[in-house]
Design brief:
The complex is a heterodimer of chains A (518) and B (429). With 518 residues, chain A is mainly α. Helix content of chain A is 58%, strand content 3%. Classes of the chains: A mainly alpha (518), B alpha/beta (429).
Chain lengths: 518, 429
């Protein structure tokens, strides 16, 4: 898409200054029409009106102004979710710090039927590799589009916010680059069968699932790892990135571990319904004895070699602490911030060791109140930033191309980090390319049809001061920084009570400095 | 230039085209601090120290070098391509090749590059590319751009690492390189002071123009009160907006009556000319020109690929006339593609994924006016894996020589790790 096309499509010309209800009507009609396609007829009927007064389409909830949270809860909700909204703020107020955290840790008991209803319209999410290959042969990209759309919808609209934050965390930790046709087939299955079942489960189970994931085995070349020609790529990353961290193993360990995983591959037969499923090839396995991280693997073992290595890495009394520490540091960076205190990392690692790798226990430790009150500010990574703006107000995402385009501008398309280490989690890395963040809000307020957001409440506020109060409540957790309030107030003052000016002010709030931090 | 509707390509590349945003998205590292920055708008010679700026053009989709620069003296070429061969020069047939050296020629659509070639400033390198065997667009582009095949841990681009390992061309530059596009090209990943900019002539806030100044002022006010890295990034973004605005690239008038094609590629090259002549410290620009995945109805004489070649040659020819021909600007242009296409045409009057293809190098100091090749031949027994033009010159040889001799690189071992380039006399002297 050329920049002219973007302008053409996103700019409301001068005439828009005087727009009032007619604009709202047309947007609403579009909303209703596209909703029918996105949600199925039943759900669309429930959305009659434009938008249905008082309810969030993606996450039905009374359209109340979010309460202002005390600082401890503000921090907890912003670190637990992809963005504070009224539902989460009220939940936190009623449950208290620990209650809210436990509520989210027990993610299975959170009702998520509204998200499920949205996802039900997507038909291909459970497709097998076999189905996905057939779709590619038909030149049908529905499964790919739906996979990306579902990724965004889940992050934006699930009530299991902490769980979804962990899905993102493990998708980075066990990064697979969605580059090839093979990964178009395999990565969505990895997401469904590896990352999602274990995101807040037991780490040993997660690691085991990943090691059996054809997407991972292909990405890290284990599919060509065989006795007479070992490929060390998976073995190295298994230790360096998935468990121990660099410098905690030797080159000899890499060689031995790669031998242990010889024959771990996938079913390649395009005509088999097992296509793209895990398969151990006994004839490719190295049956000689192996010596891994100080432990012997007996000669004659087959697939057990690899299973033993996985057990060693995450459960052995001497090796597991290294893995626990490596994971603890990474989780601390994600939830607490950069350069986490060693004591905090120690507590998270202890949580792992006391529970044989319970991820819940680690996250509980990472988000403990005393530590979080000392945490430094973090910059939202682009996907977090774009999602958080969708969560502020009732919204619907109708298609994925526009968001994908915007995330591409920001360098953060899901599953598109090329190397196995996953997208960075560093303020300095993400804090430079501001122009796409500044223009993202303009896309949202333009309401072109790909993403619908209910801004009526803001446009209809009686005075600009009321408007600014609403902006404070929704975008700045009740407390707009002074410089932000001044800047927005003088921006509005040039054309008082003007709907277009207010839309632009909303775009500015989304692009503002304070909305980038969390 | 009207874009011909592309017939169905291979499914992999169709995906790429449909989902442009899925092309590997890379974030970037931009400016850290620029205390007393003032844009220089004088159009002057580039690279006072004699160091060239580099324009790196990537032909995405696997460009068929055998159509662009056909080996018209090879009978095997005509045997393999019943409908797609570019007829021999002087054959009197429509669409006959323009002879270059008695063995190779240009497709007629490449005519706009003839001036540069005849002046000795355009070098065509044939049977060239990465030695990697991949026939996946994504794999091949990725590893070619990071500059080392099959290294899953290398993430920065070869040009990004070059810029990391050399002092800026001017003190404290705001922008050292630009990737013209939506996301930053992998080629430039890791480069300091670098931004992806879709249209340098139009780098400004989206939305109503009437309120743009007010909106920017409000943003800057908000960011002035925040912490780094956001505070500094906001200042740099503002400076970049001002810089590009002050250059007024929309009103840029090419020299020597050069006329750029009315296409995205033409616009990108025209902006590139304006940016480089402004001498504001930009020393590398990456540009993509896609749409080369000609599986069906390739049309190298009067169809799809002829249009693509016309756009490519028209843009480069204009850039040559505008920037290179006068000799007062130090610029080198390199053109490459991930791989070429199978020698034998397929049943759909197209060609499938192959191996060797062409590169081009354009510049005042380039030993051009010739086709550089260690020609492997197109007879069946000479073909790579029995079907493709072989790669006999590694693309890194060409880039490394340009970097060393024209961009003063003293760190080729960092730019192309674990590779010892061979020089082929790409640069004069």
């Amino acid at each position: 898409m050329s920049i002219e096309a973007i302008h053409e499509q996103s700019v409301r010309p001068e005439a828009a200054k005087n727009e009032g209800t007619e604009e709202g009507v047309s947007a609403g009609a579009r909303w209703k029409a596209t909703t029918a396609a996105a949600l199925g007829v039943g759900a669309a009927a429930a959305l009659a009106g434009c938008p249905p007064p008082g309810y969030i389409p993606g996450d039905p909830y009374p359209d109340v102004t979010p309460p202002t949270l005390p600082e401890n809860l503000r921090r907890l909700v912003s670190r637990t979710t992809f963005g504070i909204n009224a539902r989460e703020a009220e939940l936190a107020l009623s449950l208290g710090y620990d209650g809210y955290l436990e509520y989210h840790l027990a993610h299975e008991s959170i009702d998520d039927t509204d998200l499920d209803a949205q996802l039900a319209a997507l038909r291909t999410l459970d497709d097998s590799p076999y189905d996905r290959v057939r779709a590619i042969q038909r030149d049908d990209d529905t499964p790919i589009r739906e996979f990306f759309l579902a990724t965004v919808l889940r992050a934006a609209y699930t009530r299991r916010q902490l769980y979804e934050r962990m899905v993102e965390f493990w998708s980075d930790h066990f990064n697979i680059f969605f580059r090839s046709e093979a990964q178009e087939v395999l990565k969505p299955v990895d997401d469904l069968e590896v990352i999602r079942p274990h995101a807040l489960g037991q780490f040993p189970e997660l690691l085991r699932a990943s090691a059996h994931s054809p997407a991972m085995l292909l990405y890290l070349d284990n599919t060509s790892n065989r006795a007479e020609a070992p490929n060390q790529n998976y073995a190295r990353e298994l230790m360096e990135l998935h468990t121990l961290g660099v410098d905690n193993y030797t080159q000899r360990d890499i060689e031995e571990v790669s031998r242990a995983f010889t024959g771990w591959s996938a079913e390649p037969d395009r005509d088999s319904v097992s296509l793209g499923r895990f398969r151990f090839w006994p004839q490719l396995h190295d049956y000689e004895a192996k010596h891994v991280l100080g432990h012997d693997l007996l000669a004659g073992q087959g697939i057990e070699d690899g299973e033993d290595v996985l057990d060693l890495l995450c459960l052995d009394s001497e090796i597991a602490p290294i893995t626990a520490h490596f994971l603890a540091h990474k989780i601390a960076v994600r939830f607490w911030g950069e350069e986490p205190p060693p004591a905090l990392v120690g507590e998270i690692a202890d949580a792992y060791l006391n529970t044989q790798g319970d991820i819940r226990a680690m996250v509980r430790a990472a988000l403990s109140e005393d530590w979080l009150m000392q945490a430094p500010a973090k910059i939202k990574r682009p996907s977090h930033f774009t999602i958080s703006a969708l969560r502020v107000r009732p919204s619907l995402v109708h298609e994925i191309d526009t968001l994908g385009f915007l995330l591409h501008q920001m360098g953060h398309v899901p599953f598109h980090w090329p190397t196995p280490d996953g997208y960075p989690d560093e303020n300095n890395y993400w804090g430079e390319n501001l122009m796409p963040r500044w223009t993202y809000g303009t896309w949202l307020v333009a309401q072109r049809g790909e993403i619908s957001i209910d801004f009526a409440k803001f446009i209809e506020a009686p005075t600009d001061a009321d408007f600014l109060d609403l902006v404070a409540a929704y975008y700045f957790a009740g407390a707009t920084p002074l410089a932000h309030r001044d800047a927005l107030a003088s921006f509005l003052a040039a054309f008082p009570n003007n709907p277009q000016r207010r839309r632009e002010a909303l775009a500015l709030a989304i692009g503002s400095a304070d909305f980038q931090w969390f | 230039m009207t874009k011909r509707r592309r017939p169905r390509g291979c499914s992999e590349y169709n995906e790429l085209s449909r989902r442009q945003f899925l092309a590997s998205g890379m974030a970037l590292a931009a400016a850290a601090s620029t205390p007393a920055w003032l844009p220089r708008v004088a159009y002057a010679a580039i690279g006072g120290a004699g160091r060239d700026a580099l324009v790196s053009i990537y032909l995405r989709g696997a460009c068929d070098g055998l159509s662009l620069c056909p080996p018209h003296a090879e009978d095997a070429y005509y045997a393999a391509r019943d409908t797609l061969a570019i007829p021999r020069p002087g054959s009197g047939q429509p669409g006959a090749a323009i002879d270059l050296d008695g063995f190779f020629g240009f497709a007629p659509a490449m005519r706009p590059l003839l001036d540069a070639y005849e002046a000795g400033h355009l070098l065509v390198v044939h049977a060239c590319g990465p030695h990697d065997e991949s026939r996946s667009h994504f794999d091949a582009q990725h590893f070619m751009e990071v500059g080392k095949p099959r290294d899953p841990d290398l993430i920065t681009g070869w040009l990004g690492r070059h810029l990391l390992t050399i002092d800026p061309l001017v003190p404290e530059p705001l922008l050292r390189s630009i990737g013209i596009g939506v996301g930053l090209q992998q080629t430039l990943a890791g480069a300091p002071n670098t931004l992806p900019i879709a249209d340098p002539a139009d780098f400004r806030l989206l939305g109503a123009e009437s309120s743009a100044d007010d909106r920017l002022a409000a943003l800057l006010r908000m960011y002035a009160a925040t912490e780094d890295p956001l505070r500094t990034a906001a200042e740099n973004t503002q400076k970049t907006i001002e810089l590009l605005d002050s250059l007024n690239l929309d009103a840029y008038t090419p020299a020597n009556g050069a006329v750029y094609p009315e296409s995205d590629f033409g616009a990108a090259l025209k902006s590139t000319a304006g940016l480089l002549k402004a001498e504001v410290g930009i020393e590398a620009i990456a540009i993509d020109r896609g749409d080369w995945d000609t599986h069906e109805e390739q049309g190298p004489i009067d169809g799809w690929m002829a249009d693509s070649m016309g756009d490519l040659a028209g843009g480069l020819g204009a850039f040559y006339a505008d920037v290179v021909a006068g000799g007062q600007h130090n610029v080198t242009v390199v053109v490459m593609s991930e791989f070429g296409r199978v020698v034998m045409e397929n049943a759909s009057r197209g060609t499938d994924h192959g191996h060797g293809t062409i590169m081009m190098v354009l510049g005042g100091a380039i030993a051009g006016g010739r086709v550089l090749a260690d020609w492997p031949g197109l007879a069946p027994e000479d073909l790579f894996q029995g079907q493709d033009l072989d790669v006999t010159i590694n693309y890194r040889d060409i880039l490394a020589e340009v970097l060393r001799k024209r961009l003063d690189s003293a760190a080729l071992e960092v730019v192309f790790p674990d590779y010892t380039p061979t020089e082929h006399g790409v640069v004069t002297g």
